[in-house]
Amino acid sequence: MYLKQLTVFLENREGRLDSVTDVLAKNDINIVCLALADTSEYGVIRMIVSDPDKAKAVLKEAGCLARLTNVLAVSMEQKAGSLNRLTKTFTSEGINIEYMYTLNSSREAGSMIIKCSDIDKGYEAVQKAGLTLVDPDAAYSM
Amino acid sequence: MIWNEARECMSRDEMANMQGARLRKLVANVYHNVEFYRKKMQAMGLEPGDIKGIEDITKLPFTTKNDLRDNYPFGLLAVPKSQIVRVHASSGTTGKATVVAYTRRDIEAWQECVARDLVMCGVTKEDMIQVAYGYGLFTGGLGLHYGAENLGCMTVPMSTGNTKRLVTMMEDFGATAIACTPSYLLHIAEVIEEMGVKDKLKLKTAICGAEPWTEKMRLQIEEKLGIHAHDIYGLSEVCGPGVACDCEFHKGLHVQEDHFYAEIIDKETLTPLGDGEVGELVFTTLTKEGLPLLRYRTKDLTSIDHSTCECGRTTPRISKFKGRSDDMLIIRGVNVFPSQVETALLEIEGVSPHYQMIVDRVNNLDTLEVQVEVDENVFSDEIREMEALTKKISAALQSALLIAVKVKLVEPRSLDRFEGKSKRVIDKRVFED
Fold it and tell me: At a CB cut-off of 8 Å and minimum separation 6, what does B216 contact?
């Protein structure tokens, strides 16, 4: 029911992002989507990939610091107010959204990756609000 | 000008006689009053009567910073605590401070030595001196302060911190001398420039110490400020600043050897070396009452010259330091050991002990950056938590080292390993000419 997000620590210097995408490419792992959070000295790259467990293992082997984090993926209608409805779902239950980014976006629909302060509560809130969760396997093979 | 010609220009023979008499008294004192030394001497089969003159000093046991730490805080005192009037402390290898204690006579001897040094730098009682060393447990501030008062200077206890206020007062008061670390003086020089007050200042002398600096840097200071700059040396274990200082000829630092007997030894074989040979500097405190030390190993590498100086003083001169035989760093005048960083890091749960210290000098101020490898235990997908970790590490290091530390998180195994171990320290500061 939860998605495994691949998170990699990167020093903010030349070629570091390269080395990560290199390892993933060589192991035939597709990056479905990614979001980069950076500070002046380092960055944290968050990704949904085709095979998160394998990705973590091969990155670790290559000397990268990677971990898996559980996140939610929620489908949204492609119209004004969708995101507002989504965020309200969380705030009304007192759940904090730590960060979010786009999983997928097309003319018809979209979906967001959400990391919240309490994933179980977040999951319930989404269900209660009648929103649709994206199936993890569907997300990995997008 | 010479403050105490009788002592500073004594013939070598007379000095040796005086040192011999003082050493005999010192050895008898520590043998009877300091258990640590009594045991050490007994283990070597030595009795106080075996020490007849200063030449017998090589028979005596050495003392190290570890000995001071092992006897923390007052185990090496040679007098009852009621006779102690002052305590200072410096940081030690494991975060535990090295404590030193002074009787009233120790303070008097110290201020006598500092007064000699100030006069050696051309300072007189007509001068007004700003003491811009830290006041407190560090010996710099109070050491220079008492010495300057003893000489009769108008003494301004600036301490460190507010540089603009220091420059404003330098101008308003008409201060003629300043005592501080050389790197701080370069910073002050920049502030003077920024404030555009150089022409209104009466500053003519600077007495700098507490950290290694080069002859080049000394000349740079002299040129920048249009003053005379002198090098003063000391270490808290021996008393503090004032142990040695350079005169107007700048050919080494005159050791106040009627109080502090200097030897140079081979750091491996521990045998005494002759004039001109580089080795570890060792001091015996000939007159100290509170915390007398036999053959204290400073870990500072230098050489000594016993010939009479052009200034007329016969006191021997040690050359500017060539480095240290241990891994101690002096950053902004504060002693820092890499092991302190390691201890502090290990106390933070989950933090890896892989670190590297980058010491640099930016705008003439020492900076310390500690790079810490992030591992799975502490890595989070949230920046907020990573930043909290950085703050936590930097606060822990700051409280352990007593200086500001910039912490940088780096990838695992990204720090250089040498024979399986990381190279702990990269010192980018330039001390060689």
Answer: B433
